[in-house]
Please model this.
Amino acid sequence: MSLLELSDVTKRFGGLQAVGHLSFRLEKGEILGLIGPNGAGKTTVFNVINGYYAPTGGEIRFKGERIDGKKPHEVCHLGLARTFQVVKPLARLSVLDNVMVSAFAKTSDRAAARTVALESIAFTGMDSWRDQPAGSLPLGMRKRLEMARALATKPELLLLDENFAGLNPSEVDATMGIVRKIHGSGVTILVIEHNMRVIMSISHRVLAINYGEKLAEGTPEQVANDPKVVEAYLGVAHA
Amino acid sequence: MSLMLEISHIDVFYGDVQVLWDVSFEVKKGEIVALIGANGSGKTTTLATISSLLRPRKGSVTYEGEPIHTREPHDMVSLGIAHVPEARRLFPEMSVKENLLVGALAPEAKKARPEMLEKVFTIFPRLKERENQAAGTLSGGEQQMAAMARGLMSKPRLLMLDEPSLGLSPLLVGEIFRVIQEVHEQGVTVLLVEQNVFKTLSIADRAYVLENGRVVLEGTGKDLLANDHVKKAYLGL
Model:
């Protein structure tokens, strides 16, 4: 049984098809990269998986159970967490309080939530930012805070939406280290990312979409060399 | 080349927290100047200070010979300064076209609206396709294009770009850098903040490196690309 399985998933907004007949599987322990041009529907795929939108058609299964149509908090309770591309922390609360809010998804005990939050903050290397108001963080750190918040819900599957944006190459390396550490702790990962250095080095498999439909799927090298992917997305070969 | 923008010994605070320390640099007319640095080093704060969104507690900002750090943010556009902020800041409920028109409210720019609109649609054909769509429904990359186009609508002499390649596909990153060079060739001076350090230093005439709110290095783009510290700290080499 795959950890996550999308079968023929479609999402329409009025007459606009954002995701069309998309099917793919994610096995436990994998890191799957999701790439595609701007406007291809990548974030919409995340939004239907985590219940932000109900798909117009098709089925989504997580650990074998149908999750399409469930609410985001129900999906989160099943062990599926995500980060947001457009980060919206609780700006006036500290980093610690922001992460505690997420930890409350799994516990109502304040001390336990604090412990979990401190672990997540340490895990993502944000200790020195702990007491800062989240709104004062530079963008790259807000993206990292998104990861800490998602981790505090103790996910089995983590969806990362462009967590490497706004980082310089050295900071990208550090964040790749964090993602590898999260993966090493037993979390399966689906990652949207435009930085091909990241995609090529952390993904086991890559799925490329365009106009909401599958363009290519395979190893990073296969996908990066696929002429359709080069034309629609890369401009030049990256493998 | 004549001096266009001179930042002189500025200290900038958020409340009690000092984020810029004695920062000085200059931009000459016709240059592309880049600011690079880690997250939290003060790049965005520097642009916000030039735009008078923040006031320096010490030091001055001089533009075309005139001190502007005592002016108001809304004065900047008529002075010929356009600031394209990080994370786009479009008006999500307004159409793409309306967002662009908002970029041309100063009298001179208002007169040139039809011609500028045509010009930015030539640079960004995707925006023409979506001119009547609400800006909030654009993809991230399209929003970035709209933000840049809105900046250009004011016919700036100095264009300040805060991470224009953020969230763009590799193809569009190449496209954005091409557009920056195109705009520059048309006579616009550019102050560029970017995390794509390699591409940025490749097109910049000169660059300054900010660390913990201080300028620690400066040089031509080419020199900094070859600099060992830049290679290690910013290029991941």
Remarks:
- Residues 122 and 206 of chain B are 29 Å apart (CA to CA).
- The first strand of chain B starts at residue 3 and ends at 14.
